[in-house]
Specification:
Helix content is 40%, strand content 11%. By secondary structure, it is α/β, with parallel strands linked by helices. The protein has an eight-stranded parallel sheet with strand order 14-13-10-9-8-7-6-15. Strands 16-17-18-19 form a four-stranded parallel sheet. A three-stranded parallel sheet has the order 1-2-3.
């Protein structure tokens, strides 16, 4: 057809009587003139023809009566008298009228013809199924057969695809270990001899143009070449298209150009429109024989940039069909669900939803599919349909996670069936959210917050300033901790300042006069406040320039200690206070920190057990805070408009409440909640007595430990009656966005928000 003949018809082999049904079919489809020149009947035993001129003319009469022919003649067994008789018979009839010129359609052929625009697949969709199983990339079994040279069995795969509903067979033999040129030719040569295979058109699929061209030369039907693109540059693109036009094949044009693959809707449309204009206007390629593949890309990968790939393809399909008349849109459908490989039900469900919308709403025509596994949209379970709709159209942020959950269930079902086990419980799925009954108080309008949520204590509610007179705090539990303190001299635990030390009102601050809660609120809402940096790193840097070995860690105080203490950085607040205070001041003066954390990260009885220094916990915390207090006060005195504050650092312990230390027993724990509370409470007392302004529970990887620390702080605030701002800092251990104990950041906050942290 691509040769655009003026006249087409039949001749020889049969007599006119036997040609009748076939002439009728041709008369209904050919766009040009139609002719017949039949034999004078069938040959007899001697090879001769027995029809007389009148017999032959009478046999041709049906063609004339129905107006099927534009030209008629005779072939084997006919003579001039036969032709005369036929002519005389035809003279009273009108010739065939040329058919009306209608919408151009893609018209493919194997042993049988196929108009793509008229096709409906086995699911009733107006869609051309291109079978993917004779593709090395689409079938491991096919690959093994091709690598072993078993072409006969490979044909069985091709036959099965046709039986399962493939309208076209995709043939791809691309593999680095295979001679693609030879393999393509051999496969096509064998395939065309198999009627159950070659009755459908072929799609010759290869990454190298010479391979598809070689296969093309062995295809008798009108096939599809997959593919060419502008990736090779405009000139070579036109050269390849011209050659394919000469062979009369249809062509898949990938949405690639010199800059790469089209991923977004805009890129898909731009590249396809440019390709269309070149092919139609310059190469004069029939637009109906162009199949654009705008790249079906994988969704459900967990990567945000991939989430809209399905939507982009569907939207681009509609636009391309609108601005590029008569083209087809195709794609490798299995690419869409590649992230869910191994669970065919999930993959085909995703494909079903995708194709339903892409075909019926946007006009997608063609796709490389596994026809046998395709699922009708109406056959999908309602919950599965909803999951797929959410995923394909990127309707919810949880779409991928929800589908992964369902995939795990389907995979478990497969395993259970194989092993004869009880089927797992099906996930409940999603249901529409029903409206909640509303009450008058539900309609309260939001209003701007003026400060963080307040603790319920009277001191916090009233913004009562901390008097910094810790000697007035005499609760027995606090007194007991002080009583066993190891400080060489009685510690100074009051840190109030005369009320006239600095001017009143922000930005000045005087301890005992001003509410720290109010001050921090003003500071944090007026500018971004600066905290300090790593204490451990600074200690390491010091050690690179100065001697800081076991002897220095022990100092004079612990020179005869019973175990090694190098690495116990908190101990340096006692043995090398100049180092720690120097680091504090460097952060304050050089770094410009408004707040500095104390060198008390591990100063709990639990953590200090590694160095057998449990008895020194109060002193470690006291000294860590005292040194910070001194440094802050010295720097503040230089610029009272920028007060500096001490943040009592409460780090994690080396024992956790949520994680088992035993791989054999997940219920095992090496610490109790109460033990954690006691350890943290002692730390809090030491920090506050040392002059801390704020308490921070930091580097939280186990929320239960943090809750114990916050419980201890709550007890201290209850016993003391003070309002102490509390900060909390969690640690998400990797890109999963979870703590080591498994909580998301949101869940972590929900677990500790009862403590009303300021920050």
């Amino acid at each position: 057809r691509h040769a655009k003949p003026m006249c087409v018809g039949l001749n020889c082999a049969l007599g006119a009587k036997h040609m009748t049904p076939f002439v009728e079919k041709l008369s209904k489809c050919v766009e040009c003139f139609l002719h017949v020149y039949s034999n004078a009947g069938l040959p007899n035993a001697m090879g001769g023809y027995d029809e007389s001129p009148d017999d032959m003319a009478q046999a041709n009469k049906v063609f004339f009566e129905n107006g099927w022919l534009n030209m008629v003649g005779g072939c084997c067994g006919s003579t001039p008298p036969h032709i005369k008789a036929i002519r005389e018979m035809s003279e009273s009839y009108k010739p065939r009228k040329l058919p009306d010129v209608g919408r151009p359609k893609m018209w493919l052929s194997g042993l049988e013809d196929l108009k793509v625009e008229d096709v409906h697949n086995h699911l009733g969709l107006p869609f051309l199924n291109v079978g993917e199983r004779c593709n090395i990339s689409g079938s491991l079994r096919f690959k093994k057969l091709m690598m072993s040279g078993d072409y006969g069995t490979a044909m069985d795969i091709a036959k099965k695809q046709v039986e399962d509903g493939a309208h076209v067979i995709d043939i791809n033999v691309d593999d680095g270990m295979l001679d693609g040129l030879a393999a393509m030719q051999k496969f096509v040569k064998i395939a065309v001899t198999e009627p159950e295979v070659s009755k459908v058109p072929f799609m010759l699929d290869a990454s190298k143009f010479e391979i598809v061209l070689a296969g093309l030369k062995w295809c008798q039907g009108k096939c599809i070449v997959n593919s060419i693109s502008l990736k090779v540059g405009e000139e070579l693109f036109k050269e390849q298209a011209t050659l394919l036009k000469k062979h009369g094949c249809a062509v898949v044009v990938m949405a690639f150009d010199e800059e790469g693959q089209a991923a977004t809707e805009e890129e898909k449309v731009r590249i396809c429109k440019r390709s269309y204009d070149i092919l139609v206007n310059e190469v004069k390629f029939p637009p109906e024989d162009i199949i654009f593949d705008p790249n079906v890309l994988t969704i459900g990968t967990g990567m945000e940039e991939h989430a809209n790939y399905g939507v982009d393809f569907i939207n681009a399909t509609k636009t391309i069909k609108e601005i590029c008349p008569y083209v087809k849109i195709s794609g490798g459908i299995s690419n869409l669900s590649f992230g869910f490989r191994g669970v065919m039900k999930i993959r085909e469900s995703i494909h079903s939803v995708f194709l339903q919308h892409a075909i019926l709403e946007s006009g997608m025509d063609v796709g490389i599919v596994n026809a046998h596994e395709m699922i009708a949209y109406d056959d999908l379970e309602e919950d599965m349909k909803l999951l797929c709709e959410n995923l394909v159209f990127n309707k919810t942020p949880e779409a991928t996670d929800d589908m992964l959950e369902r995939t795990a269930y389907e995979r478990a079902c497969i395993d259970a069936k194989k092993k004869g086990l009880t089927m797992p419980r099906k996930p409940r799925g999603k249901f529409p959210n029903l409206p909640r009954k509303q009450f008058a108080y539900d309609n309260v309008q939001p209003k701007p917050a003026t400060e963080p949520p307040l603790p319920t204590s009277e001191a916090a509610q009233n913004h009562t300033p901390n008097p910094y007179r810790n000697s007035n705090i005499t609760h027995e539990k606090i007194a007991a901790i002080r009583a066993k303190a190891t400080n060489p001299t009685p510690p100074k635990i009051d840190h109030c300042q005369p009320s006239d030390t600095y001017p009143e009102s922000f930005p000045h601050f005087v301890r005992g006069r001003d509410s720290l809660r109010e001050y921090i609120t003003s500071l944090f809402t007026s500018r971004i406040a600066m905290y300090d940096g790593a204490m451990g790193t600074m200690i390491q840097n010091y050690a690179k320039k100065n001697k800081l070995e076991e002897e220095e860690y022990r100092g004079e105080r612990f020179k005869d200690w019973k175990c090694n203490t190098k690495g116990n950085n908190d101990q340096l607040s006692i043995t090398q206070p100049h180092i720690i205070k120097g680091i504090y001041k460097e952060y304050l003066e050089v770094g410009g920190s408004d707040l500095i954390g104390t060198n008390t990260f591990s100063s709990t009885t639990i953590a200090m057990g590694d160095y057998e220094m449990e008895d020194y916990v109060y002193e470690l915390n006291y000294e860590g805070a005292r040194l910070a207090r001194e440094a802050c006060d010295e720097v503040t005195a230089k610029d009272p408009t920028k007060p500096r504050f001490v943040v009592g650092a409460i780090g994690p312990t080396n024992r956790t409440g949520s994680i088992s230390p035993s791989v054999e027993d997940p219920s095992a724990r090496n610490v109790t909640f109460d033990e954690l509370v006691d350890a943290y409470f002692e730390q809090v007392v030491g920090l506050m007595d040392g002059g801390a302004d704020i308490l921070m529970v930091e580097t939280i990887f186990d929320t239960l430990n943090a809750k114990a620390a916050l419980y201890a702080i709550g007890e201290y605030l209850e016993f003391s009656g003070l309002d102490i701002p509390v900060f909390v800092s969690g640690t998400l251990v990797d890109q999963s966005g979870r703590t080591l104990s498994g909580q998301t950041g949101e869940a972590f906050y929900a677990s500790i928000r009862h403590a009303k942290p300021m920050c």
